[in-house]
Design goal:
- The protein has 269 residues and is an alpha+beta fold.
- It has one domain: Nucleoside Triphosphate Pyrophosphohydrolase (Alpha-Beta Complex), CATH 3.90.79.
- Helices cover 26% and strands 26% of the residues.
- It contains seven helices and 14 strands.
- α1 crosses α2.
- It is globular, with a radius of gyration of 18 Å.
């Protein structure tokens, strides 16, 4: 397992001096590493969040967001490992597991335009442009993802996702998330556009390049993102990453003050 570099520190003000008491209960969330094989190896799709956002403003992240209670809808047509399989991997109940997988697919579509769904269990949408208006309606929460899939006779392709990790926002934070990380290979024919109001730019990069940009100061990364990039860099290819046997442990970083710097210590439950 990679180790966080010594120079990994959090921006001043990231952790408030007076932590909420009792600690904020983390909100369930999902994030997806979209990967593809590029000319020099595995590449991952990254978004730079708009500066000034309430959480992780200015940080480079993977597409993702909080679970909508409607994501647990049992009417969704589903292909792939059942919710019970995901529940065992993420150590949660089946209803939450169903919602996490749905949230992963929905948030990926909302933030990147990539849709992990198809007409059946053997196919994937090859062109998402006809769903442009529906994508915005989902962002605006005008209807649920279940309603979107049903209206377009689409099946959620849970088999295109793989479980990767589970990170929880440190206790001092006023906004906390219990985020499950998923891996997905970029579907053939689709384009990731990053057309979301939450991001100021989007890019495909090798993990090594993204981490190099962080080291030079041109890209800001939170510890979970840095660690995930390091793990993807070790995998080297999409096939190797998809085939990796991952044991999911909940990781809750601890923030410690080292002089005038905020450092992170990783602890697992």
């Amino acid at each position: 397992m990679p180790e966080l570099p010594d120079e990994m520190v959090l921006p001043e003000g990231f952790a408030p001096p007076d932590a909420p008491y009792p600690p904020v209960v983390p909100r369930d969330a999902a994030t997806v590493m979209l990967v593809r094989d590029g000319a020099t190896g595995l590449e991952v799709f990254l978004l730079r969040r708009v500066m000034g956002m309430a959480f992780a403003g200015g940080m480079t992240v993977f597409p993702g967001g909080g679970v909508d209670k409607r994501d647990a809808d049992t009417t969704i047509r589903w292909h792939g490992e059942p919710p019970s399989w995901w529940a065992a991997r993420f150590r949660c109940d089946e209803s939450l597991a169903r919602a996490l997988v749905c949230a992963a697919v929905r948030e990926t579509f909302e933030e990147s335009g990539v849709l992990l769904a198809g007409p059946d269990g053997a196919g994937v949408v090859s062109d998402t442009r006809p769903f442009h208006a529906a994508r915005q309606a989902l962002v605006d929460r005008e209807y649920s993802f279940a309603e979107f899939l049903a209206a377009n006779d689409l099946v959620l392709r849970a088999d295109l996702l793989r479980p990767w990790s589970n990170w929880v926002t440190p206790v001092p934070e006023p906004r906390r998330y219990d985020t499950r990380f998923f891996l997905a290979s970029m579907p053939t024919g689709q384009q990731a556009d990053g057309a979301t109001t939450e991001a100021e730019d989007a890019i495909w990069q090798t993990p090594a390049t993204a981490m190099s940009d962080w080291k030079t100061g041109s890209r800001a990364l939170l510890p979970p993102t840095w660690m995930t990039l390091a793990e993807l860099d070790e995998a080297g290819s999409v096939a190797a990453a998809v085939a990796a046997e991952r044991v999911i442990e909940k990781t809750t970083p601890e923030i410690i003050r080292d002089g005038d710097k905020l450092r992170v210590v990783l602890t697992k439950e």
